[in-house]
TrEMBL record:
<dbReference type="InterPro" id="IPR002347">
    <property type="entry name" value="SDR_fam"/>
</dbReference>
<dbReference type="Pfam" id="PF00106">
    <property type="entry name" value="adh_short"/>
</dbReference>
<dbReference type="InterPro" id="IPR036291">
    <property type="entry name" value="NAD(P)-bd_dom_sf"/>
</dbReference>
<protein>
    <recommendedName>
        <fullName>Short-chain dehydrogenase</fullName>
    </recommendedName>
</protein>
<keyword id="KW-0560">Oxidoreductase</keyword>
<dbReference type="InterPro" id="IPR020904">
    <property type="entry name" value="Sc_DH/Rdtase_CS"/>
</dbReference>
<comment type="similarity">
    <text>Belongs to the short-chain dehydrogenases/reductases (SDR) family.</text>
</comment>
Amino acid sequence: MDIRNATVFITGANRGLGLAFAREARRRGAAKVYAGMRNTSGFDEPGIVPVRIDVTDTASIAEAAKLAADTTLLINNAGIAALIDGPLAADVEAQSTRMFDTNYYGVVRVTQAFEQILAAQPHAAIINVLSDIVWLPRPYLTPYAASKAAAWSYTNQLRFHLHERGIQVLGLHVGFVDTDLTNGIDVPKASPEDVVRQTYDALAAGKSEVMADEGTAVLKSTLAAEIPGYITPPAGL
């Protein structure tokens, strides 16, 4: 699916990767871009329509879907993360509940609300923002990793389910991206603009997945190895 003349709805689009998706969609000639966010106050981007949506609140999701009923491309980008002491930390259950509510159930809720809208379009697609953390052991991100692994599994089921309806589903896998979400984490980070360009190019090429940085591509390539990257990460990751 090409972005030109598409109507795009992006969750978590007030900043970071979501805002980069919105700006690049406009640059590529999207007919309309909806920027979903919990608080629209002060948002002022030329050609981008702010829409209030909280992916943990079904009422706000329903209102957003009603307002953006001409959507042809849904981008499930909204997400949260937090650092913990490890998989046995006292707060692992509480943090996991919080992460799943946004990073997994949020994707499910928004997709359910927009599915009929997309199914009515001659050309439609969904992009789910995932993470290389599903293959990379990082104990301090255990709840986040589990929620993204669930979102990856959901994306695979969704792609298969929607294939016959002509709705393209693209999973974006990427490592750390240089946004507010990764502030304070001292690791190499991908440019959000570069990640977005690769993702839209993959969508236009009809792909089902995109590995948007070298580290993620290396990790994915190890999955069939005798010792895959989720057991022993490759050097440098």
